[in-house]
Amino acid sequence: MPQTKWKDEPDEHDYPAAADYLALLADRATVDHLTAQLRSAPILHKKAKDILRAARLQLLPADNPHVQADLDKIENGKALAPILLVRGDLESDVALQIADGYHRVCASYHTDENTDIPTKIASWK
Question: Long-range contacts of range 68-71, CB-CB < 8 Å, 24 or more positions apart?
Answer without folding.
Answer: 69/103, 70/103, 70/104, 70/106, 70/107, 70/108, 71/1, 71/107, 71/110, 71/111
